[in-house]
């Protein structure tokens, strides 16, 4: 999808499941690959000086999607960058098309049991409130919709440490660079 850009200029886009420490992974991966790191959700929050949930509550979902689209368009102008974007943001409007046109999208996935366990841990006592749990499960389902997108490089990280995830992604990225810089065999018979 991003064949118009030389591989050396393509972005590595990270998305995936709630509970996976994508921001930490993104930062460590960017450092390992000597690339800058951008977190789309962080840019949105900093721009409005509110959390994503506060933006949604104060301005509404429609305005949040508009802000997300604006930030994604700006982010798509970057080159050779590790970009972290939530699955929820990625599936809205043309966000996926904008970002996928600039690089490769890696979806970090975990098994459903692990995802529910991480959700339980992250919510603490609120997990036992049926209303809060229902809201969190709805959010989880929206995040999982990213799995339906085409041209994703899916990676199950359920039983991997952060270091293993970073190492695997870095190795994969480097092998893709080598593969893209190797000339195709010539069909000349000589």
In short:
The chain is an alpha/beta fold.
Overview of the molecule:
- It is a single chain.
- The protein has 190 residues and is α/β, with parallel strands linked by helices.
- The model has no long low-confidence stretch (mean pLDDT 87).
- It contains nine helices and five strands.
- The radius of gyration is 18 Å and the shape is globular.
- A five-stranded parallel beta sheet has the order 2-3-1-4-5.
- The protein has helices at residues 22-33, 40-48, 52-59, 61-75, 87-91, 95-100, 112-123, 130-144, 162-181, and strands at 11-16, 37-39, 82-84, 103-109, 152-156.
Query: pLDDT under 50 segments (min length 5)?
Result: none
Q: What multimeric state do the chains show?
A: single chain
The value of Rg in angstroms is 18 Å
Shape verdict:
globular
Total domain count? 1
Distance between the termini: 34 Å
Order of strands, widest sheet: 2-3-1-4-5
Fold-level CATH name: Rossmann fold
What is the architecture at the second tier of CATH? 3-Layer(aba) Sandwich
Number of strands: 5
CATH first level? Alpha Beta
